[in-house]
Design goal:
This protein is an alpha/beta fold and 264 residues long. It contains eight helices and ten strands.
């Protein structure tokens, strides 16, 4: 039996079978978006409220028509926000557009070139949103101290970057991720920097609870095929983590076949 059928990912008050979260930006159109999301098996889809129509413009195609909220859990995010006030305002708008939906992804950026998070503004926004009844999944740096602060504020998932958003550089600092995972009592979901399936598998083997990605799928030469590859990578990485890998043996070989009890 596949792991994701009996190994639920619990975030706040919700549970999910899939540990792959997928963004909805950068595809050529909403049809391709839908095909890739379906192929990925993702149940949670992120949407940038400032960039994607989910009802703000009645005269334009709405993502809701292609990915119905009855079939997918929407995760509104604050992409493009550079301070706490704008982020809070954006997510309150999302809650109105999605009929009271309170599971959100907070990201407060600090720099337009690197899109690195402004952790000071992020913490302030998180405090406000948690008090306002939101279940906050939060994008942050791979600083273990900041990650713990955000958990203590009340965020339901911590989402440290693997590397810069859209860079495809993979996991640059697995040691910090390991510290965050070991010190966290809420899900840790790698967000940003994944470039290919092996990056996703490594994140899961480290013990991350899930991976969120967008560019790695949307900008692949064959996005739908890559979405399927990412699904398999997440499942394989999770199974490998749960299985418990063998110990590494520095400068010591170990034969695969037994050396005692040989047939003579």
């Amino acid at each position: 039996m596949a792991v994701n059928q009996n190994d639920a990912l619990t975030i706040g008050s919700r549970s999910f079978k899939s540990r792959l979260l997928v963004g909805t930006g950068k595809y050529k159109d909403f049809n391709e978006t839908k095909q890739a999301i379906v192929e990925s098996g993702a149940e949670i889809v992120t949407v940038a409220i400032r960039r994607t129509n989910i009802g703000q413009d009645a005269n334009e195609p709405s993502l809701l028509d292609f990915l119905p909220p009855s079939e997918f859990t929407y995760l509104p995010n604050t992409a493009g926000c550079f301070n706490a006030d704008d982020s809070v305002r954006t997510l309150r708008l999302a809650r109105e557009l999605l009929d009271g939906h309170n599971l959100v992804k907070l990201e407060v950026l600090g720099d337009k070139e690197t899109l690195y998070p402004n952790v000071i503004e992020t913490v302030e926004a998180a405090k406000t949103l948690v008090k306002d009844g939101f279940e906050v999944m939060v994008y942050t740096s791979d600083d273990p101290i900041v990650a713990k602060m955000l958990e203590d504020v009340g965020c339901v998932a911590i989402m440290p970057l693997a590397s810069l958003i859209g860079s495809g550089m993979g996991i640059l600092n697995p040691w910090n991720l390991d510290i965050i995972i070991k010190n966290s009592s809420v899900p840790v979901i790698v967000d940003a920097g994944v470039g290919t399936a092996s990056d996703a598998a490594i994140a899961m083997e480290l013990g991350c609870d899930g991976v969120l990605m967008n560019t790695a799928i949307a900008e692949a030469q064959k996005p739908v095929m890559m979405a399927g590859a990412m699904k398999k990578a997440i499942e394989a990485g999770r199974e490998a983590y749960l299985s418990g890998r063998m110990n590494k043996k520095l400068y010591q070989a170990s034969p695969s076949s037994p050396t005692t009890g040989l047939i003579k």
